[in-house]
Hints:
By secondary structure, this protein is α+β, with helices and mostly antiparallel strands. It is built from nine helices and ten strands.
Amino acid sequence: xxxxxxxxxxxxxxxxxxxxxxxxxxxxxxxxxxxxxxxxxxxxxxxxxxxxxxxxxxxxxxxxxxxxxxxxxxxxxxxxxxxxxxxxxxxxxxxxxxxxxxxxxxxxxxxxxxxxxxxxxxxxxxxxxxxxxxxxxxxxxxxxxxxxxxxxxxxxxxxxxxxxxxxxxxxxxxxxxxxxxxxxxxxxxxxxxxxxxxxxxxxxxxxxxxxxxxxxxxxxxxxxxxxxxxxxxxxxxxxxxxxxxxxxxxx
Length: 251
């Protein structure tokens, strides 16, 4: 079907004004229209007390998606950490590990809960790899920032060692040095492959896309790694939008 410029303009603006908010099981998930694109950023909320956590747990494409849907996680960024090479790149990362930086609201989720997501999202008994991804860059690491986080990480590792039934927990606990954000094409990798979901966000610059809280949530949904209740809630809303916009099947 051939669309007129007016229809394309209307459709683009309709999609660009969608805002999807995913909350905990005790809250509702809503998609609503606003007068402007509403993205959850530090710049928009300067008084919001956010914290950072960094983990390495295999390929950062999947790792990022594992964290994005959790209530209290504001945004996620993939990158490189744990090594000595300055300004690493995907094809030349030296001794760094593929890592995920999680920006979160400590009033809604704490470091101990993020550790639970970390442990449940990979095989921490596999040395230097995850599944078919083998190599030092895929090793398991908890990066800490201060004594309290180091203590929490050590206690959680001991707990997992007890549960591992004789297998060695290979996870390292390291003080966080420099986190180097990865190239744009690696950010929100699962979401970038879903054209319909990208349309729901609207036309964003690369910087806006990478900083988008909405994109972090939808990245987790695209990979089917959201907590089951949230995955189902988003799916229900997405299906409703598909039925409401038949033009999308023909664009």
